[in-house]
Structure formats: C-alpha cells, structure tokens
Give the backbone structure.
Amino acid sequence: DAGVTQSPTHLIKTRGQQVTLRCSPISGHKSVSWYQQVLGQGPQFIFQYYEKEERGRGNFPDRFSARQFPNYSSELNVNALLLGDSALYLCASSGGLGWGTEAFFGQGTRLTVV
Amino acid sequence: KQEVTQIPAALSVPEGENLVLNCSFTDSAIYNLQWFRQDPGKGLTSLLLIQSSQREQTSGRLNASLDKSSGRSTLYIAASQPGDSATYLCAGRPSGSARQLTFGSGTQLTVLP
C-alpha cells in the first residue's frame, strides 16, 4: 500500500507569490494534518482536517489556509510568501481525530522563497 | 502549553554501542507519545507509539519507555549500526490539544563505523 504522498517534492517561489502544496493520505485514513519544519527545529503544527472539516489550527497567520476533498486528499495554500516561509512542509495522515491514533508522515515538500 | 525538550542535541557513538535518547515534556497529561526518525531532507518515519496507559513499546532493536509522572520518555537503541545515523524526534499529543503533535527539536545521532 502507498504511504502518504506529497507533491511537489521541491519548489522555488518568489516573495509575494502564492503556493499550493498537495497531500494524499494513506488509503482509509480520514485525517490529514499539516506541519512546517524549519531547519534545525521540530515540526510545528499548522492545520488538521477530518472529514473535510477543519478540526485544529496552529499559531500561523491567515496567509495559510487549507482544505480537504471528498477523497480525503488535502491542499495547503500559502499566500503572499515571505522569506521566512522557506521550510519543509510535512503532511501527516491518521485513521482518527487524535488521542490514540498513530500519525504517518509523507516525504515533505521543500519550499524555498527567494 | 506543552513543551518538549530533547537532550542531547547531537550524539556520536561507535558502532555496536547501546545508547539512550531522552525526551522530556512539561504537561504530564498526554494521550500518547511517538518517536520518529528523520533522514536529512526527508520526511518522518514512525518508529514507536506509546499510549498513555502503557509504559514501554519495543520494535526490534528499539525500546521506548514512557513515565508520565516525571514527564520523560527514553528511546533505547541496542547494538547501534551506521544505518541508524539520523535525527530522532519525539512528539507528544497533549490532552489540551489532542489534534496536534508537539515535537522536540530532535537528537542528531551519528554512528561511526
């Protein structure tokens, strides 16, 4: 079975532009979460979606938005890119909302803002 | 607010050595704790998940323990190999915000042949 897949793997954007990152969860998983990891730090929580509804939001500006589709795949959008948005963006899927469920991560999308 | 700390930040050991990685968290009311491995520039690979009702989990040469009362978890790696070289991250799912994982900054492990 395929694990969590993310696309693209790398991309370079200019300050002020907008970017869309995509994630497909493990088959049967209904929960998708997004994390941002800057170099040398642990991942920081951005959003969680479950059954197409936002169920959690981290401390990120409104420039960050996301959605989940009927097939449980998800997109993360970032508007008005800043240099500080350069990071590895990770998607995680799990079978439930949280508590006892195990999170499985994709390989990430490396975003570079120049 | 849950905070997770991992010490040391980096560790270098000779091949074959047994080693322990440490993880501490400020809020003992966690639902579970998960250990991950991350290779440079890559995503996270789940190693072990410990539920709040458990004290330890084992997978092959890996053993993870959880002591909620002291706010600590340890990852024990037996007979280390060069292929174990990676960054190891622990993450807790806090009771106040179970939707998210709160991560430490990781321990970068190098196993020398």
